[in-house]
Structures are given as structure tokens and as C-alpha cells.
């Protein structure tokens, strides 16, 4: 029988059984140095060299990674030394990654993470705290509570507000729509219990054509009929305004339907547009609707004194999504939902009482009998959202906020907006580029290349100009010198620069446009 204190079946037993500091501490220190050196090799040998790994084609990359079989190999049977595993990362994985660090990487909302965030991720995984029930990660729950207080303050919420950290904006928006169903709808209908099945028919939720897909998905998964979501056209600058929503509400009420919520966006994924939250809040207050704002990206603009007014009135919403792994420069994953009335979370999710969570139940409803040794005010996050087991997401943001402060976040956000302004200025001054909208609201710039200049491009079929943007984006990917995504706006294809990069300068923006000109000539020739 093997000795669990000395796992000799492994070539590095001192890295498996680590309880003896005399045996393992130096070995762990060396392992940590090797891991960090591998990370630095990735950053400086790949991440700053290419924005997109090679090859970029799906089938080609499958062939490179998996080999001749074209699919996953069997699981490893025998143990191996850590260094050999790290070397496999360096050779099989690192060269093929998308790089958030590359200074001309402006694709999706994927910023390079702050160093303190990486440190927090490492420390959280070493500590292995479970942030579901308080006594499985007591101090971890308090760290999350403090971070949530800071996020509530950022949004402008006062006493009584609270929230929960999630994997991202999709889950945060899902929870918000669950609050609409299980807390708000029973209140407006005078129901004794959350509605289900046919009781969800005849209600309406209003959003713009720029609203994130997760709002519609959440309504689908929560059992609402497809017609529940009413898409109201955005204005010329892709913003949802109060007047057309009020008109839609009036039409639906006249038809015997029940409006229950508005789902607004502050920093849309497509264009970075910010709905007119104040106007929508007026409508919601007048009509008795829940107002949710998806500010997953845009909320961070409130850190910057120069740009906070671009995302005004968030504090008037009933719930707000904030994603720190976007413009707070956090390592994946870290999203969050904050609500003006923090009690709504437990009212929606805290009714079931699993036996194995007895210590976190507190007194049973109506009986005041204690199911375990918990207390009614004990902070147990399993009662506030969908997840049971929850990783310690808060630590990396807690460390980052301590490291750079709100002032630092404001400086980084403002720098990104300055770069987006510079890109917009260059596009506006050029004959061979055009933007939509002409001026971006935050740090997303949607623009397209006009081969041969505006007059020549105007004679092209719209489909040809769309195809040109796709070819240009693919050529940029292949070059490795930058990265942009594409999107569709009013039926046409645009390049999309989402500038959330702490490593970029104005020179990088200028170089990107020059590169696009060169590539544009090549792909249209």
C-alpha cells in the first residue's frame, strides 16, 4: 500500500504531498518560478508579437493541435514532471492564442488583466474558498460583500442595495430577469407566489435592437412566451429613448397586455451606445415597470470625472449589470449584478433549504426554528443566485481596487476613451474610411474601409462593400499585427474596434489604420 504522505508513484512527490515544509517549500518555490517564467515567455514571445495565433483557420488549427487524428487524444495515463507539462503549454498552446496584450488588439471586450487581478486569481485558487455558504469561505464572503458595496457605490446605490458576483453579464442579466419574474411580476399582479406556466402569458418587456442577446435568452429560459420581448427601434445613434417605449407601452395596454419591465443598455456590445436611462427611468416610474440596465461594459465610465456623465442615471434603475472583466481590467471570469433593493435576491432564490446547507439556513420560515447553527442574517450567497458552489471571484477585484484605486480605474478608462476619440478623428478626416455612428459614445468605434475612397466605394454594390470588410478583417487576423471584430449595423457590415487595452497608444491606432489601408488594397486588388 502506498504511503499518502510520500506519493512515490509520482516523479515529483514533493509537489503532491506538500504538508512538510522542509521537503516541499523549496520545490514549490521552484515550481512557482517555472510557472511564472512560462507565463512571461507567453507574454513576451507571443502576446506582444501577434494579436492572433497561427493558423487562424478552424480546421487548420484543429489539425495542428490534435494532430493527424483531428480530435482529442486519450487522457494521460501516467504522471509527468511539471516542467514537461509547462513545455507542452509553451509549444502546443501559447503560439495559438488570441492576445489581449497586443497593443493593436481591439476585438471583443477582452482587456489585458491587471497584475493585481492575476495575483488575486492565483491566491484565490490556492486558498480554495467556497463562496456559497458562509462557513465554507467565511472571509471570502466578506471580501465579496465589500467588493459589492464598492460596485453599488459606483452605480450610485445607497443603503439597502446589494448584489452578487457572477461568471459574466449573461448570468447577471439572467438573474435580473428572474427578479422581474419572481419578485416584480407577483407584486404588480397581487400574486401569492411567483408565476409559472400560463401565468407568464400576456406580459411585455421592452428593449432596443442593440440590447444584448442574453435578455431574450433569459426570458426564453425563464418560461416567457417568445412575444414577451418587444424590440423598440433605437435612434440614429443606436440609443433607446423614452418616447417610443412609452408609445409601445400605451399600445400594449390598449390591447389588454401587461408591461412589466424595460431592459436598457449602457454601453452596447455592438457600438458602445448608451440608452437614455433618465428618460427610461421616468417611463418606468410612471408605468410601474422594473428598469434593468445592462451596464456590463459602460458602468466603469463613472470612474472618470471627464466621462461619468456619459452613463448618467444608473442609480435610478432597479438592477444593473456590471462586468469587472470588461472595463475594470479583470482576469476572466468576473461579472456581477447589483440591485437597489438587496432583499429581492433572497426573495427570489432563498426559498429552498438543502439539508447539507443546514448551517446556513437560519430560522425556518414562520417557525423561527433553527435548522442548524446558522443565523437569519448570515451571508450565504447560495441563497442569492443560481449557483451553489461558487469560486472566490471577488479577491482579484479587491486586490486590484486596493492596488490602483478608483482614481487609477478612472485614468485607465479615460485613456481608452482618448484612443477611441483619436480613432474617430482619424476616420472622420479620411476619405477612405467612414464611421457609424459618426462619433462613438464610449470606446467602441464602428467603421469601414472605402476602397479607392468615398466616391469609388459609393459605386460598389452594398454586398461587395460588406464582403470587403470581412476580407479585410480576415487579412488583419492573418497578419497578426492587430485584431478587430466585425458587426452588422442597419444591415451593413462594419469593422468594430472595442478599445479596452491598457497597452495601446495613439501611435498604435495610427499604425492600425495604415495597416488596414495596405491590406485593403491587397484584398481588393
Give a description of the structure.
The chain is an alpha/beta fold and 525 residues long. The protein is 42% helix and 12% strand. The protein is built from 14 helices and 12 strands. Helix 6 packs across helix 10. The termini are far apart.
Helix content: 40-55%
Q: What is the tally of helical segments?
A: 14
Provide the CATH architecture of the largest domain.
3-Layer(aba) Sandwich
Total tally of structural domains: 2
What overall geometry do the principal axes of the alpha carbons give?
A: globular
Chart the SSEs and their pairings:
Elements: H1 21-47, H2 58-66, H3 82-93, E1 105-106, H4 115-127, H5 138-155, E2 162-166, H6 169-189, E3 203-208, H7 213-221, E4 229-232, H8 242-254, E5 258-265, H9 277-287, E6 290-294, E7 319-321, E8 335-339, H10 343-349, H11 394-429, E9 433-435, E10 444-449, H12 454-458, H13 462-479, E11 483-489, E12 492-498, H14 506-524
Parallel strand pairs: 1-11, 3-4, 3-5, 5-6, 6-7
Antiparallel strand pairs: 2-8, 7-8, 9-10, 10-12, 11-12
Amino acid at each position: 500500500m502506498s504511503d499518502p504522505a510520500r506519493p512515490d508513484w509520482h516523479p515529483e512527490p514533493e509537489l503532491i504531498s506538500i504538508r512538510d515544509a522542509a521537503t516541499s517549500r523549496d520545490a514549490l518555490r521552484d515550481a512557482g518560478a517555472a510557472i511564472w517564467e512560462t507565463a512571461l515567455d507567453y507574454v513576451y514571445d507571443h502576446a506582444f508579437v501577434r494579436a492572433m495565433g497561427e493558423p487562424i483557420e478552424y480546421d487548420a488549427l484543429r489539425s495542428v493541435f490534435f494532430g493527424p487524428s483531428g480530435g482529442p487524444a486519450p487522457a494521460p495515463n501516467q504522471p509527468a514532471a511539471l516542467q514537461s507539462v509547462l513545455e507542452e503549454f509553451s509549444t502546443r498552446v501559447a503560439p495559438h492564442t488570441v492576445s489581449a496584450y497586443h497593443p493593436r488588439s481591439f476585438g471583443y471586450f477582452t482587456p489585458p488583466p491587471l497584475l493585481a487581478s492575476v495575483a488575486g486569481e492565483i491566491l484565490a485558487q490556492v486558498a480554495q474558498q467556497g463562496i456559497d455558504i458562509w462557513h465554507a469561505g467565511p472571509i471570502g464572503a466578506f471580501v465579496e460583500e465589500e467588493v459589492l458595496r464598492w460596485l453599488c457605490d459606483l452605480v450610485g446605490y445607497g443603503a439597502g442595495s446589494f448584489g452578487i458576483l457572477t461568471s459574466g453579464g449573461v448570468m447577471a442579466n439572467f438573474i435580473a430577469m428572474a427578479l422581474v419574474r419572481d419578485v416584480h411580476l407577483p407584486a404588480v399582479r397581487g400574486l401569492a407566489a411567483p408565476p409559472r406556466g400560463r401565468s407568464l402569458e400576456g406580459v411585455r418587456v421592452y428593449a432596443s435592437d442593440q440590447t444584448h442577446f442574453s435578455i431574450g435568452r433569459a426570458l426564453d429560459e425563464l418560461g416567457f412566451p417568445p412575444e414577451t420581448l418587444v424590440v423598440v427601434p433605437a435612434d440614429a445613434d443606436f440609443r433607446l429613448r423614452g418616447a417610443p417605449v412609452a408609445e409601445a407601452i400605451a399600445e400594449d395596454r390598449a390591447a389588454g397586455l401587461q408591461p412589466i419591465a424595460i431592459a436598457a443598455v449602457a454601453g452596447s456590445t455592438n457600438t458602445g451606445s448608451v440608452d437614455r436611462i433618465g428618460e427610461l427611468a421616468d417611463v418606468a416610474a410612471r408605468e410601474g415597470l422594473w428598469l434593468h440596465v445592462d451596464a456590463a461594459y459602460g458602468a466603469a465610465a463613472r470612474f472618470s470625472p471627464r466621462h461619468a456623465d456619459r452613463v448618467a442615471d444608473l442609480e435610478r434603475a432597479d438592477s444593473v449589470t456590471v462586468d469587472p472583466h470588461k472595463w475594470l481590467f479583470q482576469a476572466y471570469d468576473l461579472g456581477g449584478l447589483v440591485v437597489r433593493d438587496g432583499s429581492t435576491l433572497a426573495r427570489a432564490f432563498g426559498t429552498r433549504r438543502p439539508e447539507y446547507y443546514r448551517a446556513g439556513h437560519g430560522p425556518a420560515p414562520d417557525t423561527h426554528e433553527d435548522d442548524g447553527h446558522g443565523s437569519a442574517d448570515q451571508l450565504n450567497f447560495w441563497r442569492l443566485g443560481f449557483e451553489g458552489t461558487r469560486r472566490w471571484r471577488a479577491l482579484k477585484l479587491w486586490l486590484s481596487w486596493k492596488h490602483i484605486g478608483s482614481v487609477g480605474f478612472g485614468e485607465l478608462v479615460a485613456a481608452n476613451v482618448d484612443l477611441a476619440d483619436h480613432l474617430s478623428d482619424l476616420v472622420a478626416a479620411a476619405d477612405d474610411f467612414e464611421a457609424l455612428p459618426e462619433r462613438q459614445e464610449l470606446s467602441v468605434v464602428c467603421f469601414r474601409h472605402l476602397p479607392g475612397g468615398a466616391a469609388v466605394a459609393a459605386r460598389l454594390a452594398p454586398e461587395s462593400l460588406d464582403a470587403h470588410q470581412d476580407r479585410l478583417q480576415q487579412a488583419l487576423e492573418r497578419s497578426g499585427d492587430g485584431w478587430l471584430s466585425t458587426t452588422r449595423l442597419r444591415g451593413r457590415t462594419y469593422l468594430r474596434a472595442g478599445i479596452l487595452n491598457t497597452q495601446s497608444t495613439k501611435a498604435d491606432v495610427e499604425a492600425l489604420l495604415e495597416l488596414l489601408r495596405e491590406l485593403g488594397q491587397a484584398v481588393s486588388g
